[in-house]
Amino acid sequence: MLTARNVTKNYSNLQVLRGVDISVSKGEIVTIVGSSGAGKSTLLHILGTLDSPSGGDISINGVQTSTLQGRRLADFRNRHIGFIFQFHHLLPEFNALENVSIPGYIAGAKKSAVKERAEYLLETLGLKDRMDHRPKELSGGEQQRVAVARALINSPAVIMADEPTGNLDSRNARELHQLFLQLRDQFNQTFIIVTHNEELATLSDRQLVMKDGKIVS
Ligand code: ADP
Ligand code: ADP
Q: What are the residue boundaries of the ABC transporter domain, all occurrences included (predicted)?
């Protein structure tokens, strides 16, 4: 589903990624672990097309992402990649249902179909009674689950998550882990997750350990 071959990234003199190879299958949860500064976030951003590599090839669902630019790149990203970050980045003036729906509207899907799917996802994630709440009216765990629903709205090939539990207490972190496993089992959803959370890394299908810009195990 996703393959990366010999991906490198340099910032002027600094070689942040030194030839990374990855292949991820559909329905797999892959975690990327390693000490701070190893290059994990840089790699995730490049796999997610938020940043471009200095060298190497990445393909997602058979599309060579480096060949995409501008509008086509933004469109590809919105349709095929879901993002979850440490902070939820929900839009404060919109309610949960609207926040989840926005990427669907941007993708040009039919309004009624987007609303129906957003409602279904929020219900699946245990937020049936929270759909018309704005982010500040939700608990931290609920906010992050809304962000998960938003990431799922366009049925992305892969969800990229950067420290998704970094801002949650241990109970909410554990609930989010269970949710990732549920989404894998229920929707065959693929995840690539950068995490310091050992429990999450242990639960994943595969752990990639990064050190000094390379995957070492
Ligand atoms: P990790 O996520 O493993 O902590 P990062 O990918 O954030 O590591 O960073 C890897 C290295 O790249 C660090 O040395 C960091 O300072 C450097 N780096 C990251 N982004 C930039 C940037 N935009 N410009 C220069 N150096 C950067
Ligand atoms: P937690 O125990 O996870 O920290 P909170 O105590 O923040 O949760 O919230 C408990 C419940 O109250 C949540 O389900 C949330 O939706 C609801 N809630 C919290 N703040 C507000 C608010 N300002 N308006 C409406 N509902 C709220």
A: 2-216
Residue 17 identity: L
pLDDT tens column, 50-107: 999 999 999 999 999 999 999 999 999 999 999 999 999 999 999 999 999 999 999 9
Q: Domains of the chain: which residue ranges?
A: 2-215
Is 39 close to ligand 1, i.e. is its CB under 6 Å away? Answer: yes
Here the ipTM equals: 0.69
Q: Is the minimum distance from the CB of 138 to ligand 2 under 6 angstroms?
A: yes
Question: pLDDT by residue (tens digit) across 132-189?
Answer: 999 999 999 999 999 999 999 999 999 999 999 999 999 999 999 999 999 999 999 9
Counting Cα atoms < 13 Å in the Cβ hemisphere of 165 gives 22
Structure tokens at 19: 């030839």
Expressed in angstroms and rounded, the spacing between residue 187 Cα and the centre of ligand 1 is 33
Q: How many alpha carbons fall within 13 Å on the CB side of residue 119?
A: 7
Ligand sitting nearest the alpha carbon of 132: 2
Of 3.40.50.300, 2.10.70.10, 3.40.50.720, 3.40.525.10, the CATH number of 2-215 is: 3.40.50.300
